[in-house]
Amino acid sequence: MEERAIKPLFTESSSPSARFIACLILSFLLISVDHQHQHLASLRAMLAVAVYPLQYAASLPVQLVDDLAQTLATRRALQGENEHLRGENTQLQAQVLRFAALETENQRLRQLLDSSANRREDVAVAEILTVDSNPAQQQVIINKGSRSHLYVGQPIADAHGLLGQIIQVSPFTATALLVCDERHAVAVEVNRTGLRAVAVGAGESNELMLSFVPTNADIEVGDLITSSGLDNRFPPGYPVGTVTAISAVPGDQFAKISVQPSAQIGHTREVLIVWPERRVDASASPP
Amino acid sequence: MISRLNWPGAIGISLLVALLLTAIPLPDWVQSWRPAWVAITVIYWCLAIPERIGVFVAWSIGLVLDVLHGSILGQHALGLATVGYIAVLYHQRIRVFPLVQQSLVVGSMVFFYLGGMSFIYNMLGSRHYGPEYLLGAVTSALLWPWAYIVLRDFRRKTVTSAR
User: Fold this and answer.
1) Residues of B whose CB is below 8 A from A185
2) Closest approach of chain A CAs to the CA of B104, in angstroms?
3) CATH code, domain carrying B80
4) Where is average pLDDT lowest: A125-139, A195-209, B78-92, B124-138?
5) How crowded is the C-beta side of A210, counted as CA atoms within 13 Å?
6) In A, residues 255-284, which contact B (CB 8 Å cutoff)?
7) B82/A20 Cβ within 8 A
8) Whole domain around residue B54: which residue ranges?
9) Containing domain of residue A202, as a range?
10) Best of B42, B73, B133 to mutate (most A CBs within 10 Å, chain A)
């Protein structure tokens, strides 16, 4: 074992330049293939499984802090919260009662009209594992994947509104693109008037923009924007946001409309995964 | 006293810790100041034992980083391979620099690495990365002396001397 006692100063193995050029070629191949095709989805899913423990471990400190805050909460605070939740629960239950009555009535009316009836969605709850470390990239990783029958393009929401959609699935995790990412768009309508539009993510901040709304359209600050379901991807009727600002750009036939998302992006840890109607293909069946 | 690495797991552990520090969620305003942990660790090992850790290892770690970030496969691999190549090529020179000069070199390497990454993001991803994405280079340079000392001690602990 002593033949390599002295570290060779000049190594004769293949030069780093040769290896570097090999890596360069490999990288460019990977980038071009991954950019244009979906062939690498399985490779990515495989690697994602290997990375899962890492992501889980990284989310642990935040969970620990949350748990600690729970443990250290005073009795008085807990009692207050409990009371508040109890009140809220009663209110919500009253609303659900009314909602159930309305839903049956709606279904009956729809049957009378012979239009496509019940759109009953299934939902499951998942937890956000990590938020991407890049501020400009609005995506999150959640702790459910293809093992829980998630699929690419599936809508996710939180308790307050539409959150985004799933863009990558691996067996245990899935990556979701948030509504405020620049690459994200959702077909919406104004709840008050039924005006249709497309809500596109604005990028950096917590904001959406409404595209293709004429300057003379009937829209006001404070209007609720809901998903219209016309994109065949998001279920109709989920709140997307409220209009915060409207401005007309001179010379442009469309108004510049800012929308604040209803979903509490950056504040929630639990997300709802939505199966919008049972599809025919088995891949989209709920667990 | 001949030092020899007889526990290769040590390198893996340090790289794992770096990946972990990359993945830990931070508040928004600190995000852009997050040092390029993985790049720093790769640079250290490329400087310390270039005959073992070089371009290929850096490239594979970059692939893992791509999956972690959800970026295009090969993007961070390309960046880290380049960083590792430069470190391996000039390791004899950079090793003898005083720590301050070293951190300047490392900082500029990370600067170009982050610049390349944001360039590829902007080219392919249709996303806009402002100059604040490069702030990580500043923290990386400031962090380098500590990272260097910690990793050096870690290497000496895990590298048993062969009598």
Assistant:
1) none
2) 23
3) 1.10.1760
4) A125-139
5) 35
6) 266
7) yes
8) 9-22+32-156
9) 39-71+121-278
10) B73
Q: How far apart are CA A156 and CA A160, in angstroms?
A: 11
Q: Which residue numbers in chain A have pLDDT < 70?
A: 1-14, 114-120, 130-137, 204-205, 277-287
pLDDT digits (tens, 9 = 90+) for A68-125: 887 887 788 888 989 999 999 999 998 888 888 888 888 888 777 765 545 567 788 8
Contact (CB<8Å) A54/B68: yes
DSSP 8-state class, residue A221: T
- Among residues A87, A118, A149, which one ends one of the domains? A118
Taken as a whole, chain B contains a residue count of: 163
Higher per-residue pLDDT: A106 or B128? A106
CB B163 within 8 A of CB B5: no
Could you tell me which residues come within 8 angstroms of residue B17 by beta carbon, excluding any fewer than 6 positions away? B37, B41
Q: What pLDDT shows up at residue B1?
A: 42
Phi, psi of B66 (to 5 degrees): -60, -45
The verdict on a CB contact (< 8 Å) between B77 and A8 is no
Q: Do A91 and A51 sit in the same domain of this protein?
A: no
**Whether residue A93 sits in one domain with residue A49:** no
Task: For residue B159, give the DSSP letter.
Answer: S
Closest chain A CA to residue B50: A16
Asked if B75 and B31 count as a contact pair (C-beta separation under 8 A), the reply is no
Task: Please name the residues between 111 and 130 in chain A that touch chain B, using a CB distance below 8 Å.
Answer: 130
Residue A277: both structure tokens together: 């109607």
Nearest CA distance, A108 vs chain B (angstrom): 46
Q: Residue A49: its chain B contacts at CB < 8 A?
A: none
Q: Which residues of B touch A1 (CB under 8 A)?
A: 162
Residue A101, pLDDT score: 86
Could you give the ipTM of this predicted complex? Answer: 0.81
The gap between the terminal CA atoms of chain A, to the nearest Å, is 58
Residues B9 and B112: beta-carbon distance below 8 Å: no
* pLDDT top residue among A67 and B130: A67
| Tens digit of each residue's pLDDT (9 = 90 or more) over B101-115 | 999 999 999 999 999
Q: A59 and A130 share a domain? A: yes
Of B86, B83, B146, B153, residue with least CA distance to B114: B83
Report the amino acid identity of residue A209: M
Whether pLDDT at B118 is above 50:
yes
Angle at A120 (CA atoms; ends A117, A123), nearest 5 degrees: 165
Whether residue A94 lies within 8 A of chain B, CB to CB, comes out as: no
Whether A16 is in a domain gets the answer: no
